[in-house]
Design brief:
Mean pLDDT: 84
Low-confidence stretches: none
Structural class: mainly alpha
Radius of gyration: 27 Å
CATH superfamily of the largest domain: MetI-like
Helix content: over 70%
Order of helices and strands: HHHHHHHHHHHHHHHH
Number of domains: 2
Strand content: under 5%
Number of strands: 0
CATH class of the largest domain: Mainly Alpha
Number of helices: 16
Distance between the termini: 52 Å
């Protein structure tokens, strides 16, 4: 270390740089490295906390039943029981539940993306009296708990005969989602107004500007909204539990709940089924990770 200091001092003297300034630079460099190291340790600590439940779920799915309740806990099974997966899928009809889930998830994803983008275009590119007030009212709906609207919506859907169908889980999302509207509006505001003005001068309608100018430029933001909508619908448990009563229409989340009720002591099988249900979401996220991060990064807070 002393040799390095001497070399730094010699270089500083040759360049006519004060030695005190070199010392300040060295201290700031060491402090910066210590800060980055501390930040890495903190991030690693919280990453382990978040990953641990997933690790425990996967490990439990490969254990024998006595090992699940063993004290002290067994962090790694003595023998990996891979047959827990086919055994669980023999009593858990994954394909049927997955098809039912996709019947809801795909329309919800498309409906949320299209309707929210249309509303966001109106809030970002159309100038009309009271636009900002209406936008703030839309955002205010995010503060309304779902429990407040649960009973009125159930009575409404029951009156029109939608209970025990997929319509209550799909149709409302074709009228926009407040959070998705907010994200897309912020992204649309980042697009150059000159492109919209040029298209309008050429005679393009607002819908053509929206479809051929704004939408192609907003693919990262649209991908984020679609991914959020897909995950929210795929993992939704409460709404299907309220509106669906026919077991043949159960989604994956309701199927897991039903499996847990029928096989309460079979924790390895339950965890194996949970891993199978979680796997598509993990694969989807890794396939769209680049687009997802790009969309989050470029969705600013310009007002």
């Amino acid at each position: 270390m002393s040799n390095i200091v001497n070399v730094a001092e010699e270089k500083a003297l040759r360049a006519n740089v004060p030695v005190a300034q070199v010392a300040v630079y060295r201290r700031s460099k060491v402090l910066r490295r210590l800060t980055l190291g501390l930040a890495f340790v903190v991030v690693l600590f919280f990453a382990v906390i978040f990953v641990f439940p997933v690790y425990w779920m996967i490990v439990t799915s490969l254990k024998a039943v006595p090992e699940v309740f063993h004290l002290p806990p067994i962090w790694w099974p003595h023998k990996l029981l891979w047959h827990n997966y086919p055994d669980a899928l023999n009593v858990f009809p994954f394909i049927k539940y997955a098809v039912n889930t996709l019947k809801i998830t795909l329309p919800v994803t498309a409906g949320t993306t299209i309707s929210s983008s249309l509303v966001a275009y109106g809030f970002s590119r159309l100038h009309w009296r009271g636009r900002d007030i209406v936008f703030y009212l839309v955002l205010a709906t995010l503060m309304i708990p779902n429990w407040v609207t649960l009973v009125p919506l159930y009575i409404l859907f029951n009156k029109i005969g939608w209970v025990d169908t997929y319509k209550p889980l799909i149709v409302p999302f074709f009228f926009g989602d407040p959070f998705s509207i907010f994200l897309l509006r912020q992204f649309f505001l980042r697009q150059p107004q000159e492109l919209v003005d040029a298209a309008r001068v050429d005679g393009a309608s607002h819908f053509r500007v929206y479809w051929q100018v704004i939408m192609p430029l907003s693919r990262p933001a649209l991908a984020v909204v679609a991914l959020f909508a897909f995950i929210a619908s795929y993992t939704d448990f409460f709404n299907p539990l309220i509106y669906l009563s026919n077991p043949d229409k159960y989604t994956l989340q309701l199927g897991l709940y039903n499996f847990f009720g029928q096989h309460f002591v079979n924790w390895p099988g339950f965890m194996a089924a949970s891993v199978v249900v979680l796997a598509p979401i993990v694969v989807l996220f890794f396939l769209t990770q680049k687009t997802f991060i790009e969309g989050i990064t470029f969705t600013g807070l310009k007002g």
